[in-house]
Amino acid sequence: MFSRGLTRTNMPAVDVVESEIPYEVTAELPGIDEKNIEVKVANGILTMKGEKQEEKEEKKKDYYLQERHYGSFERSFEIPEGVDPDKIEATFKKGVLTVTLPKKVEAQKPAKKVEVKAA
């Protein structure tokens, strides 16, 4: 199963879902640009990093407002046994990062039903 690794500030919430074929890891990353996201796999660890840089400037007749927000995050997870690390893919759409971790063929075997007998 997935286990957490080291993290930094501004950690996004991450959902991990297992289906028959892949695991899916999703993270909501509002305000982060795709070019500021990095996904790496090394030594059985999946690492997602990102950095947010937001600037707001507003000039009106009576006031001037300037805000800057910066932050970074890093989330790491141990990859479960049975995942094919060469087929891991990541997509980013509408502020949501989705990392798909396909299982190897031998790990996709259907569950075996065990009959319960009266003792």
What can you see in these coordinates?
The protein has 119 residues and is an all-beta fold. It has one domain: Immunoglobulin-like (Sandwich). The protein has strands at 14-18, 22-28, 37-42, 45-59, 64-78, 89-93, 96-102. It is elongated, with a radius of gyration of 20 Å. Mean pLDDT is 84; it is low at 1-9.
Q: What is the domain total for the residues?
A: 1
Distance between the termini: 33 Å
The gyration radius over C-alpha positions equals 20 Å
Proper CATH architecture: Sandwich
Key words describing this protein structure:
four-stranded antiparallel beta sheet, mainly beta, elongated, single chain
Write the layout of secondary structure elements.
Blueprint: E1 14-18, E2 22-28, E3 37-42, E4 45-59, E5 64-78, E6 89-93, E7 96-102
Antiparallel strand pairs: 1-2, 2-7, 3-4, 4-5, 6-7
Provide a concise account of the structure shown.
This protein has 119 residues and is an all-beta fold. 12% of the residues are buried.
